Amino acid sequence: MGLNKEKINGYGDSLYEAMRKRTTIAPLTTQSPDIIIEDAYQISLRMLERRLADGEQMIGKKIGVTSKVVMDMLNVRQPDFGFLTDTMVYGNSAEVPVSTQLIQPKAEGEIAFVLKRDLKGPGVTNADVIAATDFVMPCFEIVDSRITDWKIKIQDTIADNASCGAIVLGDKSVSPLDVDLATCGIVVSLNGEIISTGAGAAAMGSPVNAVTWLANTLGAYGIELKAGDIILSGSLVPLQTVKPGDAMHMEIGGIGQASARFV
């Protein structure tokens, strides 16, 4: 079962065009109710292929839908992954051009892992992930959906590159050996008001579990995590809709802080 190659490429092209033109399309799960998760990943690869043809470079991966609060918000019940390219990355305190680059953005706070050696599943353990990690950093992910009104099921968000939009890397990097990634706390504020708090355990019990899951899941597709890759381990707090004029700040205990302004 599933979609044929022509339909997969067509949906990948539609999502790519929607991203470039800042428009949305109807959920793929309503356009093709028979779409399966494997189709969705093939669609996301087609979308990535179009971006790489434009000269973008792949610099890492993101894990999505790892926390119960995000699962509940999106009514999606399993993690997924998407691809990060160089055009998505902003430095700490950057102005993120949501008004000209994104469609319906939401921001979330998480921990980014930067690898110093390759990881290839299956069989990757948490100890392997720690050993392969050069450092961790605080990170905002600004998710975005090319699906109208965020009306997504798991197949829709996977096809749409796990709803990835942009990322803002924080001000510090620390060794994963120097912080308890499960218990470290996060505080997020919007325009000077605290809006959410959380802990590393929100991401599948620990962000390390999330990266291990990713390495092993990608291994099944013949994809490996590469030295130098940035890996986003999943949100530790609820998603927050952002608009031009908003400013967000977060602090993760033992790791550092990150700030972003939206224009």
* Percent range for β-strand residues: 25-35%
Distance between the termini: 44 Å
Biggest pleated sheet: 8 strands, mixed
Structural class, please?
Answer: alpha+beta
Number of strands: 13
Count of DSSP helices? 8
Order of helices and strands: HHHEHEEEHEHEHEEEHEEEE
Give the overall average pLDDT: 93
CATH superfamily: Fumarylacetoacetase-like, C-terminal domain
Helical content class: 25-40%
Structural Rg = 17 Å
Highest-level CATH class: Alpha Beta
Count of domain modules: 1
Give the CA-based shape.
globular
Secondary-structure map with pairings?
Elements: H1 5-21, H2 28-31, H3 37-53, E1 58-64, H4 68-74, E2 80-85, E3 89-90, E4 94-96, H5 98-101, E5 106-115, H6 126-132, E6 133-143, H7 154-159, E7 164-169, E8 185-190, E9 193-199, H8 207-220, E10 230-235, E11 240-241, E12 247-252, E13 256-262
Parallel strand pairs: 1-10, 3-7, 4-13
Antiparallel strand pairs: 1-2, 5-6, 5-10, 5-11, 6-7, 8-9, 8-12, 12-13
Model description:
By secondary structure, the protein is α+β, with helices and mostly antiparallel strands. The protein has one domain (59-262): Fumarylacetoacetase-like, C-terminal domain (Fumarylacetoacetate hydrolase, domain 2, Alpha-Beta Complex), CATH 3.90.850. It contains eight helices and 13 strands. The protein has helices at residues 5-21, 28-31, 37-53, 68-74, 98-101, 126-132, 154-159, 207-220, and strands spanning 58-64, 80-85, 89-90, 94-96, 106-115, 133-143, 164-169, 185-190, 193-199, 230-235, 240-241, 247-252, 256-262. The strands form two sheets. Strands 1, 2, 3, 5, 6, 7, 10 and 11 form an eight-stranded mixed beta sheet that branches. A five-stranded mixed beta sheet has the order 4-13-12-8-9, with no helix packed on it. A hairpin with a 2-residue loop joins strand 8 (185-190) and strand 9. Helix 1 (5-21) crosses helix 3 and helix 6 (126-132) crosses helix 8 (207-220). The termini are far apart. The mean pLDDT is 93.
